[in-house]
Specification:
With 258 residues, this protein is an alpha/beta fold. It has two domains: 175 residues, Rossmann fold (3-Layer(aba) Sandwich), CATH 3.40.50; 70 residues, Helicase, Ruva Protein, domain 3. The chain has twelve helices and nine strands. The radius of gyration is 21 Å and the shape is elongated.
């Protein structure tokens, strides 16, 4: 099967069936979302295992190819941008799990969608991205992504996927992970505040807050007062656990609203 990938869509196609089989095991008896089915190697395996597969392909040419080549009765194939789809129109809101080899350029957006929708997932992602997801406090890779991932999910590494399993061959290896939602109730505003703090992760909490003043809309005297009174103000942000950073963001949000 030959199909010229489109760089504008970040297309890299899995070509190894044994890897698709390991991913599809998690689809047994479930309604599955697949973003970017590509050449359909994973899609076919999902259809063999799942109750229903909703595969969303943005590329019209790929969509037409898949429609002509895969005729499983439990497959719903949609030609659209996943993030533009109305859930009520596609049945996505009834899905049990997302299983996908995600285009690298959509990784962060997909994680955000999964967090918002409390959905479990099996994803194949760029290794460096997964390293940041799993990074612990006081390490080089610890970032906003690390904090958000830990607050919203329990993330388990399933297997490494060397880059030779894709065409065209990417510059980096990938990793398959399982994400179990923790059903956290964290507002988008708090997620944004966590991002502000992590932008200044090498600074103390106090200085990170003061340096974020223009985004928080507070006067200098006010922000200094809040920064001095906040939890663990003298600690470096990147040394704090995700729960501690969330606690600081909650305090900051309350102080601004007061």
């Amino acid at each position: 099967m030959y199909f010229k990938s489109k760089k504008s869509l970040g297309q890299v196609f899995l070509i190894t069936e044994s890897i698709a089989e390991k991913e599809a095991v998690h689809a047994a008896g479930k309604t599955v979302i697949e973003i970017g089915p590509g050449l359909g190697i994973l899609t076919r395996k999902l259809c063999e295992n799942a109750k229903k597969v909703v595969a969303v392909e943005k590329d019209r040419d790929l969509y037409e190819m898949l429609k002509n080549e895969i005729h499983s009765k439990n497959l719903v194939l949609i030609n659209n941008d996943f993030f533009d789809i109305s859930a009520s129109r596609t049945g996505i809101e009834k899905a049990d799990i997302m299983i996908s080899n995600i285009p690298y350029n959509l990784s962060g957006k997909v994680i955000g969608w999964l967090a918002k929708n409390n959905m479990q997932a099996v994803l194949c992602l760029q290794k460096e991205f997964v390293d940041h997801m799993l990074a612990k406090p006081d390490t080089h890779d610890y970032s906003k992504l690390s904090v958000i991932s830990a607050l919203f999910f329990r993330v388990t590494k399933i297997m490494n996927v060397p880059k030779g399993n894709f065409r065209p061959v990417p510059k980096v290896d990938s990793v398959i992970i399982y994400m179990k939602p923790l059903k956290a109730r964290i507002s988008e505003r708090l997620v944004w505040m966590i991002g502000l703090l992590m932008q200044h992760k090498k600074k103390t909490v106090r200085n990170a807050i003061i340096d974020s003043r223009k985004y928080l809309g507070m006067e200098k005297d006010e922000i200094i007062s809040v920064a001095n009174s906040v939890y663990m103000s003298d600690k470096k942000v990147f040394k704090l656990a995700p729960e501690e950073i969330l606690k600081i963001a909650e305090y900051l949000d309350h102080a601004i609203a007061a």
